[in-house]
Amino acid sequence: MTTAAAGHSAPAAASADQGVGPLLRAWRERRRVSQLELALRADSSARHISFVETGRSRPSEEMVLRLAEHLDVPVRERNALLLAAGYAPHYPETPLDSPQLDTLREGMERLIQGYEPYPALVVDAMYHVVAANRGVVMLMDGVAEHLLQPPLNVMRLTLHPEGLAPRIRNLREWRGHLLAQMERQIGLYRSEPLRELYEEVAAYPVPEADAGDEPAEPVPYFALPMQIEHEGRVLSFISSISTFNTPMDVTVAELAIETLLPADPATVKYLHSLMS
Q1: Which residues span the domain enclosing 151?
Q2: 127-183, pLDDT tens digit by residue?
């Protein structure tokens, strides 16, 4: 889910009260798309795109949605574009505990439970844990009680000195991966709470490497693993993140399912032995 970190400013750094034009231009520039290219994608003209961006022409509701789709604008920000253009939001934001989302919640629960004994969880845009299976619970051994109070936050759980961090063998590499992931999210969503979370977890102390430690033998993984100690063993996992295709609701659009795939046969064998 930077401190505008890698120099990213929000696409809507242009204020919404300036109208939809500057917001669309900011998204187009973020996507590195020319006015002509966007016009061809949206079945319009470069002249019309220019007029929209400068405020000389007010786009229709349909055009705002079409441009947002071709610029891959997040669903929440599409609503912001519509409001800036003088239209009502198009996408609802249904509370996750709403009866309307019962089927979705049940489906996610079945999915992550079916992934056991491997860890799997569902998080929202702020990295709050929405659901988790027993594989995740197993990894929580030794985590400080205050980090386990709801809402659980996966970034705090992972990087806090009283969380998983002391047991992560390759903490510096894994921490860098997670912070970079958050930077990308901040570049995509205009979220001050997400920025504050980034600043908090980025400030957590990182233990200095022991000068007497021998460097670990490199292992040819196909992706960066998280290597974590558990009851005297080192388990290795590769993270995979899935989102919903073409969501029509802000809440659903911001959910992500993370699965931790065992990265070596020893981890597979150990996890299956726990569940048996």
Answers
A1: 99-206+220-275
A2: 999 999 999 999 998 999 999 999 999 999 999 999 999 999 999 999 999 999 999
Backbone angles phi, psi at 159, to 5 degrees: -100, -15
138-161 exposure pattern, b = at least 16 Cβ within 10 A, e = fewer: bbeeebeeebeeeebbbbbbbbbe
Residues 126 and 32 grouped into a single domain: no
Q: Tokens 């990265």 belong to which residue? A: 263
Phi, psi for 175 (deg, rounded to 5): -60, -45
What is the chain's mean pLDDT, rounded? Answer: 88
Backbone angles phi, psi at 12, to 5 degrees: -100, 40
Q: CB atoms < 10 A from the CB of 28, how many? A: 21
Neighbours of 31 (CB within 10 A): 14
- One domain for residues 41 and 127: no
Backbone CA torsion sign across 191, 197, 1, 109: negative
